[in-house]
Amino acid sequence: MWFKRKGRNRRVGREAVLEVKMRSRDARRGRMRALTTAVSVVAGTATGGVLLWQGYQWALDRFVYSNEAYAIRRLELRHEGRLRPDQIRQWANVHPGQNLLALDLDRVRYDLELNPWIAWADVEAHRPDGIRLTVWEREPVAQVVVWRFSVGDGRAWPETNYLDAAGFVLPPLRREWVKPGESIDFSFLPQLVGLDGYPVIPGQVLRHRMAHAALELIRAYEWSSLYPLVDLDRVDVSGSHLLTGMLRQGTEVTFATFDFERQMRHWRSIHDYGERHGLVAASLDLSITNNLPVRWRTNAVSPESPPPRPAKPKRSPPRHV
Length: 321
What we know:
The protein has 6 helices and 12 strands. The chain is α/β, with parallel strands linked by helices. The strands form 3 sheets. A 6-stranded mixed sheet has the order 7-8-9-10-11-12, covered by helices on one side. It is elongated, with a radius of gyration of 40 Å.
């Protein structure tokens, strides 16, 4: 009992101890070094990219946008119409000395087409110092009188707007926009009536089914042999299926909304018959295909010929319109 061996301390007696904390510390240090390296690489790449971009911008401005070799010296305008060339250049906002490569060609085209009287514009760059503008004008084929109102003072006044063949509404043409000697009087155009209460907004297409049919009728009339012989004064579009035209001579003509070429041929036959026999039609209905009803004036004296119309301008049809 007195000589019993004392128990050994297990902690002291262990032969091997795992260094867990040391290995964990080394792993954290390795991860921090990798993260620092990655951040340094990303920051260096970003800094290099910014410096490269700024150098590129400086070189672009120095050698391209500020290069006198690309300054606009030639401005060619291809245009046939009544608008003044200097007015078109003013709308384009292109001036000699501007850098051709810095010019936004789409912006120039958009600025030109903002004017309702310009149907289509094309802008071409001819390096190193030239630009070409091609402009097509809209051609009015009919007129329409609308009432405009001022909310501020309650005034109301009639304003004559115009329609092209597609029904695009044109505002009055200003004298300062037009070449010297060109007329802005379109009172000879047929007038569309019967649009009371329907919105007629300059710069927009008139969305009215009978009005579009009337425009097709007017175009067929303009290109028919009747154009120099009779004067179509107005077309009533208030009907649901038929159009009613009134001539300056007082003749009332009823039209169908289709097959206008056939109606023009029948109309010419009736007109020639009246000319041969000294008769003047009071009314005729061209909407019927056979046995066209005509009412002749009794004891009628052939009216004087209407004043000659201005010659129709020769235009090529505008593209993309």
